[in-house]
Write a structure and sequence with these properties.
Blueprint lengths: L1 H8 L7 H21 L4 E4 L5 E5 L6 E7 L13 H8 L9 H10 L3 E6 L4 E7 L4 H13 L5 H19 L3 H14 L18 H11 L5 E6 L3 H12 L18 E5 L6 E8 L8 H14 L6 E6 L4 E9 L4 H14 L5 H20 L1 H10 L11 H12 L4 E5 L8 H6 L2
Parallel strand pairs: 2-6, 7-11
Antiparallel strand pairs: 1-2, 3-5, 3-6, 4-5, 8-10, 8-11, 9-10
Helix pairs in contact: 1-9, 2-9, 3-6, 5-9, 10-12, 10-14
Function: Substrate recognition and binding subunit of the essential mitochondrial processing protease (MPP), which cleaves the mitochondrial sequence off newly imported precursors proteins.
Family: Belongs to the peptidase M16 family.
GO cellular component, one term: mitochondrion
């Protein structure tokens, strides 16, 4: 109603009213329902299309946030670096409060605020006690919906924190390898294959406002809560996000896996290598099988530097192995990766049973920590359906992967590595 709209416009004046109305009516039932609720994720969609997702943890800490589908895959060539810049502009002051006033109001409630961005999402969150839910939601909503985006602030942010992150990431082999892997998997001319770390040097405050206008719409937003009663989260979401306008519902181009090679020349002492394959999208039929496969791969490699990865997106995913070696030994490391992947076509029930248990344990551990749980709720990345995975389903998936074009990425000296054609011939 008008009360909510007024609150949304001037959240600096947020009285306790918004939460009280909801909490008084629902708190007693929420408290009784907590043990049952803790077993599952609760989801509600507001009338304007904003999704509200939560899970009780029974832990004393809570995390609440909003995830917006405005990551780098939504950027056109002209928008390069917009999502990175938006992350750095978070909690920098809003249309109703300076950054200092906003920071103080969150600190007064014992809340720590954070913003992250990636290929799919820009995600704003606050962590603290469940009793600070309203203040946290107010701060998150305010920075997500009505940031000031002043010219001088955008210029200063680009020159300082953005420049610092770009400089740090451009020398980090792990980041460079991840970006090269995406280029190899999706192609360098595609939104998913391009690096997330574009320099937003050409982006003005005005440009940023326009980028946001097309993406910060109701159907692109998911409010998440970990360790908070769902009813309370829904009523606060109505209050702060219920009047967000619907958008055109335009989707970015679908991610289409192609496979290939990408190498980053770097004057590094080690050669960093990643071997990836087309994985599973969030919530897809194969998602649990891929999670189990990743766990099996991590035990199948012999190199101590090697580890397995499973990256999931809304419509695609990447699974495989990465590691680092002395340049002369990089070929042997690659062969180790190939052998591990091929071994997946012949896994037995015992190994799959152990891997399933490990995946379930990891999922459980992740759900105990409110910030991790909230981030997983935002992306939908929590794995379900692990019980149904069988050795047969893992072997079928692996057989499909070994026949497909791999994504082969490297950072550093290449002289020890096989060519892409030599690599594919190993399968």
């Amino acid at each position: 109603g008008p009360h909510c709209a007024a609150l949304s416009l001037a959240m600096s004046l947020v009285p306790r009213l918004c939460a009280r109305v909801a909490a008084a009516a629902k708190f007693s039932t929420a408290a009784e329902a907590a043990p049952a609720a803790s077993l599952s994720v609760a989801t509600t969609t507001l009338s304007n299309g904003v999704k509200v997702v939560s899970k009780e943890t029974g832990a004393p800490a809570a995390t609440f946030g909003v995830a917006v589908s405005a990551g780098s895959r939504h950027e056109s060539a002209m928008d390069g670096g917009a999502s990175l810049l938006l992350k750095h502009m978070a909690f920098k002051g809003t249309t109703s409060r300076s950054d200092l006033a906003l920071a103080r109001s969150l600190e007064a409630e014992g809340l720590s605020a954070n913003a992250v961005a990636g290929r799919e999402l820009v995600y704003y969150s606050a962590s603290g006690l469940p009793s600070s839910l309203e203040a946290g939601m107010a701060g998150v909503a305010e920075t997500a919906l009505s940031p000031a985006l002043l010219d001088w602030q955008v210029k200063e942010t680009k020159a300082e924190s953005v420049a610092f992150e770009l400089a740090t990431q451009s020398t980090d082999p792990q980041t460079l390898l991840t970006e090269a892997l995406h280029e190899a998997a999706f192609g360098d001319e595609t939104p998913m294959g391009r690096t997330f770390y574009m320099d937003p040097k050409g982006i003005s405050a005005e440009h940023l406002v326009a980028y946001r206008a097309g993406l910060y719409t109701a159907e692109n937003m998911t409010v998440v809560g970990a360790g908070v009663p769902h009813d309370q989260l829904v009523s606060l979401s109505e209050c702060f996000f219920g009047s967000v306008a619907k958008g055109t519902g335009s989707k970015p181009p679908p991610a289409s896996y192609v496979g290939g090679a990408a190498a980053v020349k770097a004057d590094a002492p080690l050669t960093h290598v990643a071997l990836g394959f087309n994985g599973a999208a969030v919530g897809s039929a194969d998602a649990a099988t891929v999670a189990v496969l990743k766990e099996l791969l991590s035990h199948a490699v012999t190199s101590p530097s090697a580890a397995a990865f499973n990256i999931t997106y809304s419509d695609s995913g990447l699974v495989g192995l990465y590691g680092a070696a002395d340049p002369a030994a990089a070929g042997a490391l690659t062969e180790d990766f190939v052998a591990a992947v091929k071994a997946m076509t012949a896994v037995d029930d015992a190994a799959v049973g152990a891997a399933k248990l490990a995946v379930k344990t990891q999922t459980l551990v992740a759900s105990q920590e409110s910030a991790t749980l909230a981030a997983n709720l935002a992306t939908g990345a929590a794995v379900t359906g692990v019980d149904a995975v069988s050795a047969a389903s893992v072997k079928a998936l692996a057989s499909k992967l070994v026949k497909s074009p791999p994504a082969f990425a490297s950072v550093g000296p290449r002289y020890g590595l096989p060519s892409y054609n030599t690599l594919t011939a190993m399968f």
